[in-house]
Design goal:
Chain lengths: ~325, ~260
C-alpha cells in the first residue's frame, strides 16, 4: 500500500496548457484582427451592409462546413461535397422546372438524394477500407458525371417564389437562411458537446481501434457521419441555388475546398478528434472577410485563390505543429 | 470447499491463415486470484486473452463465466459479462480527458432517450474511482496525452473499476514503465485483487509474477504447458518451462510437435 502513497504528479506546465488552449481562440482573434485591418484599409468594409452581405453570402458555406465537420472530427474526409451539391442542385432544379413538382416535394427529393449520396460514401469508405481521401475523390468524379448527364449541361433558372423564400424571405426581419444557419449551428453544437454521439465522435476521430475495443460500433458510426454530411450538404445546396436563382452542373464544385480550408482554419484537426462549431464558423467567416477585404482593396478574384491556398497550407502546418508540440509535452512528462 | 472458477476456457483453438496460434487450450481462473500468463513471444498469450475479451473470436472451444456458458462475439459482449481488458497499447484516447477515457463506450446518460451525456455524474464518479484506487491523478478533467506511462495504466484500471468488472485482463502493464512506476502499479494490481477482482496478467517479467500472482499459466507454441502455484516454484522453474515446455508423460496430452510462431 505504501507504494501507492508515493505520488506521481502531473507536471502542470502552465505555458503548455496556455498554448494548447490558445488554439480554441486563435481563429476568432485572427478574424477580429483582420477585420480591424480591413476597416482601416477601406471605409466601406465596416458598414452594416457590407458585414450583412458577408454573412448572407456565406450561409451555405457554413452549412457545408458543419456537415464536413462531422466527417473530419470522426477522422475522415469528404472531398465529394462540391459534386454532391452539383448533382443535388440540378436534380432539385429539374424537379421544379422540368417535372413541375411542388416546391416541398422537390426539396424533399433533393435532401433525400444528398443523404443517399452521403450514405454511399460511407458504405464505400467502410466496406472497401480505402483512404476516404481517395474514395471520395472517386465518388466526386462519379457525381460530377451523373450531374452533367442528368442536366444535359442545361441551366435552369427562375424558380418558384416559395423556393426563393429560402434566401429572399425574412422572418422578424432576419433573412430566412441566416435563421436556418443559426438553428443548424446551435443544434449541431449541442450534439457535439452534450450527446453520447458527439462524445463518441471525438473518440472515433481520436483512436478508431480503441473505440472499437471500447465496444463502439465504429463502422456504423462512420457510415452515419458521411450520411449526415450528405444531408447537410443537400440543405446547403438548396440555399445556394435559391440564392443564385439559377443552377447548372458547374454550381457546387469548389465548395469542398473552401469548406475544408475553413474547417482546418477553424481548428478541426485534419487527423480528427478535435473541433468546435464556434471556431468552424469563425473559420468560414475568416476566409469570407479575407475575400471581401481583398475585393474592396481591388486585388481581384484570382489573387484570392492564391491566398486561400496559402491559408490552407499554413493552417495544416499549424495543425501539425500543434500535434508535435503535444507529443513533446507527453514524452517530457 | 469446492473451488469455484470464475472463468473457464475449454479447448480453445485459433488460427491465423495457416498458422495455428492456439491449440486446444484450457484455462481456469479462480475467483479472486491473480494469475500470471507467461510464454515466449508468439506463444499465444495475447491471442488467448483477446478471445476472452472479445477482440478475436475462437475457431473452436467454449468459454464459461461463473459456470455459465458465454458467447463472446465482440468487446461489448465481454464487457456485459464483466470482463475488462487493458491492452498493451492501452487503447486510451489522447484527445480526451481522464473521465471521458474511463466512460467511453459506457457513458452515463440522461434525458428522455438516453442520448444526452450526464457529464456531472460522469466527472463525479470518475473522481470517486480515482480516489478509490488511491492514485494521484489530480483531476478527472486532465488530458491523458500529458500523463506518464504509469498514470495512463491507472486510467485504464480506473475504467475497469468504474464498471465493476469481475475479471480484469492486463496485457504487459509494466512493460513500458520504470522501476518505481512498475512497483506502484503492482501495488495497485494487488489492491484490485483485494477489491475482489480476478486478474489475468500477461507479462514477460517473471519476477513481477512471482511477486504478486497466485498461480502462473505457461503457454508454449500455442499449447498449455502447466499451471504452477507461485509459492512452490522458483524463477528458474518458470523460465525452464517457458523455454522447454512441460516434459510429457503418461497423464499429459500426447506430445505434439511444437512449432515456432515467432
Amino acid at each position: 500500500m505504501d507504494l501507492n502513497q508515493r505520488n506521481l504528479t502531473v507536471r502542470g506546465n502552465t505555458l503548455n496548457i496556455v498554448i494548447s488552449n490558445l488554439r480554441k481562440y486563435t481563429v476568432i482573434i485572427v478574424l477580429l484582427a483582420l477585420m480591424s485591418l480591413f476597416s482601416l484599409a477601406s471605409p466601406y468594409f465596416l458598414t452594416v451592409r457590407n458585414l450583412t452581405n458577408i454573412l448572407i453570402q456565406n450561409t451555405y458555406f457554413i452549412i457545408v462546413a458543419i456537415g464536413l465537420a462531422f466527417v473530419m472530427i470522426g477522422g475522415g474526409i469528404d472531398l465529394s461535397v462540391g459534386y454532391q451539391m452539383s448533382l443535388v442542385g440540378v436534380v432539385t432544379a429539374m424537379c421544379m422546372m422540368v417535372y413541375q413538382l411542388p416546391v416541398w416535394l422537390a426539396i424533399t427529393v433533393g435532401i433525400l438524394l444528398g443523404t443517399v449520396l452521403g450514405l454511399i460514401n460511407g458504405l464505400i469508405v467502410t466496406s472497401i477500407r480505402i483512404f476516404p481521401l481517395i474514395a471520395t475523390l472517386a465518388t466526386a468524379t462519379v457525381f460530377q458525371g451523373l450531374s452533367y448527364i442528368i442536366s444535359q449541361a442545361n441551366t435552369f433558372r427562375g424558380y418558384p417564389e416559395e423556393f426563393l423564400f429560402l434566401t429572399k424571405g425574412k422572418v422578424f426581419g432576419i433573412p430566412f437562411d441566416i435563421i436556418l444557419t443559426v438553428v443548424i449551428a446551435l443544434g449541431v453544437s449541442f450534439i457535439f458537446t452534450e450527446t453520447v454521439f458527439g462524445f463518441r465522435l471525438l473518440a472515433l476521430g481520436g483512436n478508431e481501434e480503441a473505440s472499437r475495443l471500447a465496444g463502439i460500433n465504429t463502422k456504423r458510426m462512420k457510415i452515419a457521419i458521411y450520411t449526415i454530411c450528405g444531408f447537410f450538404t443537400a440543405i446547403a445546396t438548396m440555399v445556394m441555388i435559391s440564392k443564385a436563382n439559377t443552377t447548372n452542373s458547374s454550381f457546387g464544385p469548389g465548395t469542398e475546398f473552401i469548406a475544408l480550408t475553413a474547417a482546418i482554419v477553424g481548428g478541426i484537426s485534419f487527423m480528427g478528434g478535435e473541433g468546435s462549431i464556434q471556431s468552424l464558423i469563425a473559420g468560414v467567416l475568416l476566409l469570407a472577410v479575407l475575400g471581401n477585404g481583398m475585393q474592396l482593396a481591388g486585388w481581384g478574384t484570382y489573387a484570392q485563390f492564391i491566398v486561400r491556398g496559402m491559408i490552407l497550407l499554413g493552417a495544416v502546418a499549424f495543425d501539425e505543429y500543434q500535434r508535435n508540440a503535444k507529443r513533446k509535452i507527453r514524452t517530457k512528462g | 470447499m469446492e473451488i469455484e472458477n470464475i472463468v473457464e476456457m475449454k479447448g480453445i483453438c485459433k488460427s491465423f491463415g495457416g498458422i495455428q496460434a492456439l491449440n486446444r487450450v484450457d484455462l481456469e481462473l479462480r475467483r479472486g486470484e491473480i494469475m500470471g500468463l507467461v510464454g515466449d513471444n508468439g506463444a499465444g498469450k495475447s491471442t488467448l486473452m483477446k478471445i476472452l475479451s472479445g477482440a478475436y473470436q475462437a475457431d473452436e472451444g467454449e468459454i464459461y463465466i461463473d459456470g455459465q456458458q458465454a458467447h463472446i462475439h465482440n468487446p461489448q459482449d465481454a464487457f456485459n459479462l464483466g470482463i475488462g481488458m487493458i491492452y498493451q497499447d492501452l487503447a486510451l484516447f489522447n484527445n480526451l480527458d481522464v473521465a471521458r477515457n474511463i466512460f467511453i463506450g459506457r457513458e452515463l446518460v440522461r434525458g428522455p432517450f438516453n442520448f444526452l451525456m450526464d457529464k456531472k455524474r460522469m466527472y463525479k464518479r470518475a473522481e470517486e474511482v480515482i480516489r478509490e484506487l488511491r492514485v494521484d491523478i489530480k483531476s478527472p478533467k486532465l488530458n491523458v496525452a500529458r500523463m506518464s506511462g504509469g498514470q495512463r495504466q491507472m486510467v485504464a484500471c480506473a475504467r475497469a473499476i468504474a464498471f465493476q468488472s469481475k475479471v480484469l485482463i492486463m496485457d504487459e502493464p509494466t512493460a513500458a514503465l520504470g522501476v518505481t512506476e512498475a512497483n506502484k502499479l503492482l501495488g495497485l494490481i494487488r489492491n484490485l485483487k483485494d477489491m475482489g477482482l480476478s486478474i489475468l496478467l500477461i507479462t514477460q517479467r517473471i519476477p513481477d509474477i512471482l511477486a504478486i500472482a497466485d498461480r502462473v499459466f505457461v503457454l508454449k507454441g500455442g499449447q498449455r504447458q502447466d499451471i504452477l502455484e507461485v509459492g512452490k516454484v522458483t524463477l528458474d522453474d518458470v523460465v525452464t518451462m517457458i523455454v522447454k515446455g512441460k516434459e510429457r508423460n503418461g497423464n499429459q496430452a500426447p506430445a505434439i510437435e511444437y512449432k515456432s510462431f515467432g
